[in-house]
Amino acid sequence: MVSAVHTVDAVGRDMGGSTVAIGILPTLSPSDFGVHSITERRRYLALMAQLVKRRGDAFEIDINGLDPLHMAQTDIALGGANTSFKVHYRVSPAQFANTFNAVQLVTPLVLAVAANSPTLFGHRLWRETRIPLFKQSIDTRVRDRYAWNEPARVNFGHGWVRDGAFELFSEAVRVYPPLLPQCGSESIDDASAAPALDELRLHQSTIWLWNRPVYDPVAGGHLRIEMRALPAGPSPVDMMANTALMLGLTEAFRTRVDELLPAIPFNVAEYNFYRAAQYGLDARLVWPGRSQFGCVERPVREVFEQVLPIAREGLLAIGMSASSSDRYLAIIEQRLALGRSGADWQLASVARREAQTNAREALRHMLADYMRYSNENRPVHAWPL
């Protein structure tokens, strides 16, 4: 992964720029966004036109934090401020429901420790500002307390999966009108060939669940879970540690998730997701227990004391070596011990520099340091302040 990042960076330098793995680029300004910043590819222009048409009004950005941000946009360009590190996990149909539910259950934990986008336009907002920004930047709902609205097209989901992937695909078709309709002429009479299902796959690409089911006709047809909530950065080894934590916890809880779901209603899991994005390592989450009597919030670091050893079991179960699992989980342990995610490092670094210069220059200097340490592939807990 490190060599791939360096290859991309070399291409960027040849074009007069550079690359950085970060949730939101801290030196962005409002003038960087608008219709002029949207690619001219027909698909994206058509998608923007449909979202704007359905909204019928400006897209409202309203994110709280130390420096709340309120603004309106007539297009969807602000969604491009977000940079994710997306993980696709192939799952057998028989194991899909339990695996998907386990992913949903553990995503808030991983998001809290992986947070890496604490600012936008110089405003100190959520530890993972990408989460509210992406939802609001393409939200076609017009809020009216007396009117019905379809669910947001960016969301955490509508409930625990009961049977399998089909119910999620069916839900997507029945709840959300198509934005980019496509009428194919495919025949699925041949049961030996996996159908392409181009219409369904295109429709799914216009519904942005933070964990999204994916059908792919490749290799005889298969199912994947696209994990979309993790931010890019801070360094390649940090992103691998985040992925190892996500997969380890998923596999560890997949076989016991049926015992835990009665102890955590889905709306509470959704609550966990947004609180993790808002507060990061300082979040308080509701975590289920086998012998609990009532739901109780606990500091996220306290929850990790319980689940981190279980993540190692999950990684070993899917074939990761003990040395690799220990290496990546040790990075998570150090972040927890120091209370330092990528978001925490960014905020602390900017605060230190603001004593010497103005806020804009502090962000620029922080980003320069960030890029240097990231390119050295140092885990963020070891970055100096």
Write the layout of secondary structure elements.
Elements: H1 2-14, H2 42-55, E1 59-63, E2 69-73, E3 87-91, H3 96-114, E4 119-120, E5 123-124, H4 130-137, E6 154-155, H5 165-175, H6 198-204, E7 208-209, E8 211-216, E9 222-227, H7 236-254, H8 257-260, H9 266-279, E10 284-286, E11 297-299, H10 300-317, H11 322-338, H12 342-354, H13 359-375
Helix pairs in contact: 3-7, 3-9, 7-10, 7-11, 10-11, 12-13
Textual characterization of the structure:
- Pfam families: GCS2 (PF04107).
- This is Glutamate--cysteine ligase.
- GO terms for molecular function: ligase activity, forming carbon-nitrogen bonds.
- InterPro entries: GCL_type2/YbdK_subfam (IPR050141), GCS2 (IPR006336), Gln_synth/guanido_kin_cat_dom (IPR014746).
- The chain is mainly alpha-helical.
- The protein has a single domain (19-142, 152-181, 195-380), classed as Creatine Kinase, Chain A, domain 2.
- Helix content is 45%, strand content 11%.
- The chain has helices at 2-14, 42-55, 96-114, 130-137, 165-175, 198-204, 236-254, 257-260, 266-279, 300-317, 322-338, 342-354, 359-375, and strands at residues 59-63, 69-73, 87-91, 119-120, 123-124, 154-155, 208-209, 211-216, 222-227, 284-286, 297-299.
- Strand 1 (59-63) and strand 2 form a beta hairpin.
- Helix 12 crosses helix 13 (359-375).
- The protein starts with a helix and ends in a 10-residue tail after the last helix.
- The mean pLDDT is 93.
